[in-house]
Automatic annotation (TrEMBL):
Coiled coil: none annotated. Its EC number is 3.1.-.-. This is Purple acid phosphatase family protein. The keyword Hydrolase applies. Residues 379-389 have a biased composition (Low complexity). The lineage of its organism: Bacteria, Bacillati, Actinomycetota, Actinomycetes, Pseudonocardiales. It is an enzyme of class 3 (hydrolase). Residues 46-127 form the Purple acid phosphatase N-terminal domain. One of its GO terms (molecular function) is hydrolase activity. Residues 188-368 form the Calcineurin-like phosphoesterase domain. Residues 370-392 are annotated as: Disordered. Gene3D superfamilies: 3.60.21.10, Purple acid phosphatase-like, N-terminal. It comes from Amycolatopsis pigmentata. Pfam families: Metallophos (PF00149), Pur_ac_phosph_N (PF16656).
Length: 508
């Protein structure tokens, strides 16, 4: 970023006086703050960003508390100009059904921003010290930028190491913190979280688990939007009519004309020439994976929205790339884990084929693998995807969709040691009758060969992918340089494991 350093912002928020500006940089309207005294107000906690539907002009600053606060607001400015605008926050609440705790989440919507521009902001409410952050808006039109992705994180808050497994009640490990440091080191414009954020539905204290997740990730998410997809472990019994009440409260995501019950479960936004579409697979997946079985909850509304959104995106001459972010998977080659889901192959994949989706990023399986470009399905019981090419270094996505399983965000239950050799896939084709003792419906599996399998990483449990968008030149091709970075140790240490290039004809 320009003008004011990120380190300076953090130091300013640590205590004492805050002078907006930095040595050697003229500030048009500096403000001197004194940290408020101890007035009993809760702190600004879990500060994080989201983009609006137009990432070049809209962003949301969010934080939460478990007590009422007065006048939540954001002061907005530029690195060189100082804070010159105040945006009042709206408060959304939910009451956790397990603990009875009410959580208040404060969302300040920033509109009218300039594309490809750095902003500084301070989130505050009465009696609390301001928390500072920065946000860079997306470029408008075709321009280079980077985004990143992983799923299945958990929290780094631990009990003990038992054998080779880290023990807590929400599947966390120390790598849930290391991967955050690694993503922040990559400095993406935005980060996609492919579901199963913190596993609160497994936790003894669900509210504390959400708080731990935001506290861990705020060191990145206050500087760049972390844009989520809801996974099965965001389904928490009693929290809202279909279990996603906490997720829906913590995030203020682009509107999709959905009903209030399904607000935020599917949405889309544009950054440069990339359209990102986030969907919630529990609506169509057969697997019973959350606290309640909600298969078919939207009554087809999500599928209708998705088809309309894909059609609009592909007819927009300013959009080159269509990227889908979701949780459960179309492809997987591990044994004794979740497997691929026929429900997604039946409901989503025909739409991906029809409208030429370029890339799907997902999680659910706790390892890294990717497919060849796929288009069409075999006429069998599992609707096996058909690869259109077997080259692995350069992939033309106009010929088919590449699926990436990026589920090594930090969970204590990795699946990278469970790969079939040679590659095969277990596909969930339905569920059996509910078990009276648990209420869960056991999956029904059918095996298939995996001609679509392109790359698998058995050696590393944790990591994330980065995508560097190059718009190319008119009349030529646009590319994404993709790297899967295995996270190998503390402080975000990484090693590149898989590198390849996605390419397609540029539309303008």
């Amino acid at each position: 970023m320009s003008g004011i350093s990120r380190r300076g912002l953090l130091a300013a928020g640590a205590g004492g006086a805050v002078l907006l500006g930095t040595p050697g940089v003229a500030a048009a309207s500096p403000e001197l703050w004194r940290r408020p005294g101890a007035l009993g107000a809760p702190p600004v906690s879990g500060l994080h960003l989201q983009f609006g539907s137009d990432a070049s002009r809209e962003a949301v600053v969010s934080w939460h508390s478990t007590a009422s606060v007065a006048r939540p607001r954001v002061l907005l400015g530029t690195p060189d100009g100082g804070f010159g605008r105040t945006v009042e926050a709206e408060t959304t609440t939910y009451r956790d059904a397990k603990s009875g705790t009410e959580v208040q989440v404060h969302h300040a919507r920033l509109t009218g921003l300039r594309p490809d521009t750095d902003y500084v902001y301070a989130a505050q409410h009465e009696g609390a010290a301001p928390e500072l952050g920065t946000v860079r808006t997306a470029p408008r039109g075709r321009a280079p930028f980077r985004f990143t992705s992983f799923g299945d994180q958990g929290t780094p808050t631990l009990g003990k190491l038992s054998g080779t497994t880290y023990v807590n009640d929400n599947l966390g490990s120390p790598f849930a913190g290391d991967v955050t440091a690694a993503v922040e080191g990559a400095a993406p414009l935005f980060h996609l979280v492919n579901g199963d954020l913190c596993y609160a539905n497994l936790a003894t204290d669900r509210v504390r688990t959400w708080s731990d997740w935001f506290e861990n990730n705020s060191r990145s998410a206050r500087y760049r939007p972390w844009m989520p997809a809801a996974g099965n472990h965001e389904n928490e019994l009693g929290n809202g009519p279909i279990g996603y009440g906490a997720y829906q409260a913590y995030f203020s995501l682009p509107a999709s004309d959905s009903d209030p019950e399904t607000r935020g479960l599917w949405y889309a936004f544009t950054a440069g020439s990339v359209r990102v579409i986030s969907v919630n697979n529990d609506d169509v997946a057969y697997q019973d994976g959350g606290n309640s079985y909600v298969h078919g909850y939207s009554g087809g509304a999500q599928r209708r929205w998705l088809e309309a959104e894909l059609s609009r995106s592909r007819s927009d001459p300013g959009i080159d790339w269509v990227v889908v972010c979701m949780h459960q998977v179309v492809v997987s080659t591990v044994d004794k884990f979740n497997g691929a889901d026929l429900g997604i192959r039946e409901s989503w994949v025909p739409l991906f084929d029809k409208y030429g989706v370029d890339l799907v990023v997902c999680g659910h399986e706790h390892h890294y693998e990717r497919s060849h470009p796929i288009r069409g399905q075999q006429p069998n019981d599992t609707r096996t995807p058909i690869p259109t090419d077997t080259r692995t270094d350069v992939v033309d996505t106009s010929r088919g969709t590449v699926h990436m399983v990026i589920g090594g965000g930090g969970t204590s239950a990795p699946s990278n040691k469970l790969f079939f050799a040679p590659a095969q896939c277990r596909v969930i084709t339905g569920v059996g009758a509910a078990d009276p003792s648990t209420g869960k419906r056991p999956p029904i599996y059918v095996m298939e060969d995996a001609p679509w399998s392109a790359f698998r990483d058995p050696d590393h449990a944790y990591g994330f992918a980065s995508f560097d968008v190059d718009p190319g030149k008119p009349g030529g091709h646009t590319t994404m340089a993709v790297t899967y970075h295995a996270v190998t140790g503390p402080y975000g240490a990484t090693v590149p494991v898989d590198q390849f290039t996605l390419t397609r004809p540029r539309r303008g």
